[in-house]
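Q: Got one fold?
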Amino acid sequence: MHIDNVTLVYLLVALAVLFLIWIFRLEIRLSRLLIGKNAKTLEDTFVSITADIKDIQQFRKEMEHYLAHVEKRLKRSIQGVETTRFNPFKGTGSGGNQSFSVAFANEKGDGIVLTSMYARDRISMFAKPLKAFKSEFDLSEEEKESIDKSKESLAQ
């Protein structure tokens, strides 16, 4: 098997063209890998990615701290607010449902119950502190109802 010189030259040129195409494709893939940071080497790209990861980790740490702080504040904030309207003078024909009792409580049940009693000649306001949905002061049925509604709304 003898290959003449012309065939050998064509074969070498074809092989050179294939190698050039292969090198060109590798160059394109490498430039895509290094795109965005003007990186000249793969090491520059890894350094840039590592810095980005550290920034993301720092941001996550700050967010976790912030959310823990917000969670503490949220536990102390009023979340359950329920109102019960009533007529304190049932049977006498006066008053109407102008009186009300409102319970304001956080998720632990700490807060206050405000009650307003309406009569034609005056309005009275009462405030009773709450601890764990209970008060050291006597509670009316309407106040208990407002507290129970507030407790139920927090359970949802």
User: Anything to note?
Assistant: The first strand starts at residue 80 and ends at 86. Residues 80-155 form one domain.
